[in-house]
Each structure stands twice: as C-alpha cells, then as structure tokens.
Design goal:
It is a single chain. This protein is mainly beta. Strand 9 and strand 10 form a beta hairpin. The protein is elongated, with a radius of gyration of 27 Å. It starts with a strand and ends with a strand.
C-alpha cells in the first residue's frame, strides 16, 4: 500500500515545418499539433498511500492548462502576475489513467510565443477537475496568482465525491524544433483536499473493579467535527476563512473476520472521509476531532440473579499536530480497551491517548 503514482501531464508539441521559400521564410498558415497526454508514472516509494478508483480519487475529467513564457532575465523564477501565452480546457476525459488531446499551433506561435529563441522552455500550470461554476470565474486575468486564488467549496458530507480538484506546475522543453514531436514536459499534480481513515481495535472483554464488561462494536458510530469545506486552488489554508462542517453517524465495518474467534479484540474500520486544508492551535474550539460512540454491556446482580445491562459510552480523539495538509492521507488506528464516558459531553468524553497517527502522501499507485 505504500506506493505512489504521480499524475503526469506529458506535453508533446509537434510542429509541421514546410519547405522554405528561396528567401528562407516560413509560411505561417502551416500548423502543428500540441498533443497533451495525461498519464500515470509509477514509483515504488515508502511513505505514500494510493488513491482509490472506486471513490473517484484518481478521476481525471477536465483539465485547464496554461502555458507561461519564461522570464528572459531570470528563467528559473515564476512570475505570479504574468499572463499565459496559451491556455485552454480539455473536457469530458473521464479517465483514471491516460487521456490525450491534440491542439493546433502555428509555427510562429511555437517559435515566437511559446519558445522564442534562445529559450527552449515554457512553464505549464494545470488545474484538474475544476468545477464549472469556478471555471466560469476565470476572466481576462489568467495570471498564476489569480488562478491559484480561485475559491473552491465541496460537500464532504457525501459518501462519495464526483472528483477531486488537483493542481500542479511544471515545464515543457523543446527537444528538436524540426521534429514532429518537438517538445515535451511532465507535471505532477496534487489534490487540494486531504483524506482521513480511522481503524479501531476494540477489546472484547475487560474486568474493572470486579465488574465484567463486553464491548458491542457492531453498534459503534463515529462523528467528525470541524472539517473544512472551502479552500483556494493553491491549497494554502492561510488564504481562506474556514467554513466548517460536521459529519455524523459514520458507521464501521469489520476489518478482519477472524478477529471474532482468533483474537481478544475486534478490528473495525470506517469509510474514508475528506476535508480541505486547515490550521489550528491545540485546544481551540475549532480544532478538528472525532467522537466515537461504543456500547458496552456490563454484568450486574439484582435480586440474586445476574443480568447484562448495555450502556453507550463516548470517546474523544484529536488529530495529531496543528495542520491538515493538502494531498495527505491521515490514517488513525485507535485502541479502545475500556468503556468511555457514560454521558456525552465533549469536554468530558474520554480522550484516547493510545492512537496510532500516520500521515503519508496521498498518491495513486499500482
């Protein structure tokens, strides 16, 4: 599971040059092709988790692309105020692996606008799966700063997203101006959102002060509080005023069927859920946290007979750190070895100290 695939946008620019006149002047009406191929590149790397196709986490449906000239005075510096030399949108790609499209480009545009000699590079910026209402806000100012400041909002209370917005910057480089495929480049894109999963290990039975307790994880529920539903394309949480949402009633499924009979604890997992990036200070009211509700049945003696009484108990789990970063997968493993609080008060719910918290890069993988 610790694997990575970068979404890569491979740009092949093919320019058709015709025979020159005796004065060696190119004929402008002759066109060339820009072939943009969206492809996956697999790398075996520790510290990554793959996206899931079934949840549309790797879906590529639309791509907005913007080609920017390099700064002649300082080609390594990206000017956030400059306008693109060429831009466009690719729609209805409906792909999770590869997709391609061809654009017609004249020789003068290739040699004088995109790649004016002696420069053989241009910067390319892409936004994947930009919602149509946000795309409609792209006006005459298509500078990088303006594009990365586009405002996003998503409904992360749904079980499944239609797609995830991604963005990335790279370069297209000329390999041979006279060749059919004259230039190429790669852009690795990252999702603006963050992903979270929760795994719970529940002790089957425990004895406390002479009282036997049995857990009932089949009825276990979880709520997530203070997720963030808005962002900007750059994914910088400091550029937005957070708009919060709560996700309640998340159910668990058994992760290991053998745990019922072969172990002393149950293993359960919750479906993935998402949030846009957010920063907080520990102890803030807006700090993201989870509430787990787990019934326990305890043994009691009444009128000489033994009975089992079920009580709901409550736990609180906070995220590690003080930031939820974009394109990360936070995977929590929680151990519940005793009943929680018997009343549902967030400030008094049992804070679980035994939490395995792992944050990895959330990437497509094979």
């Amino acid at each position: 599971m610790k694997r990575i695939i970068k979404y890569s946008f491979l740009f092949w620019v093919s320019v058709l040059f015709v025979a020159c006149t005796k004065d060696d002047v190119y004929v402008e009406e002759h066109k060339g092709d820009i072939t943009i191929t969206l492809m996956s590149t697999s790398l075996t790397t520790k510290g990554e988790k793959p996206g899931e196709d079934a949840l549309n986490e790797n879906k590529i449906n639309t791509v907005h692309y913007f080609l920017f000239p390099v700064d002649a005075g300082n080609p390594e510096v990206i000017d956030y105020d400059v306008q693109p030399s060429h831009w466009g949108v690719l729609q209805n790609l409906n792909s999770t692996n590869t997709a391609s499209v061809q654009l017609k480009v004249s020789e003068p545009v290739f040699n004088k606008v995109l790649f004016p000699r002696p420069y053989n590079d241009c910067n390319v910026y892409v936004i994947v799966n930009l919602p149509s209402d946000v795309a409609a806000q792209i006006g005459t100012d298509r500078s990088l700063g303006k594009l990365q400041g586009l405002a996003l909002q998503s409904d992360f209370t749904k079980d499944k997203q239609e797609a995830f917005v991604m963005e990335g910057m790279g370069k297209v480089t000329v390999s041979d101006r006279a060749a059919e495929n004259a230039a190429s480049g790669t852009v690795a894109v990252k999702r603006v959102a963050a992903k979270m999963t929760v795994n719970v290990n529940v002790l089957k039975e425990v004895e406390i002060d002479g009282v036997k307790w049995k857990s009932q994880p089949g009825a276990m529920k979880m709520d997530f509080y203070n997720g963030v539903k808005n962002a900007v394309v750059s994914a910088n949480p400091e550029d937005v005023v957070p708009s919060y949402f709560n996700l309640t009633g998340l159910s668990f499924s058994e992760a290991n069927a053998q745990s019922q009979t072969l172990q002393d604890s149950w293993e359960y997992q919750c479906r993935p859920f998402y949030s846009y990036p957010v920063k907080w200070n520990i102890g803030d009211e807006s700090e993201p946290y989870f509430k787990i509700t787990l019934p326990w049945t305890h043994e009691t003696t009444e009128d000489g007979s033994t009975q089992w009484v079920t009580k709901e108990t409550f736990y609180k789990v906070i995220l590690g750190g003080e930031i939820l970063s974009h394109n990360t997968w936070s995977d929590l493993t929680i151990k519940l070895s005793a009943p929680g609080n018997f009343e549902d008060f967030p400030e008094y719910n049992v804070l679980i100290p035994d939490v395995g918290y792992k944050v990895v890069d959330w990437s497509e993988a094979t």
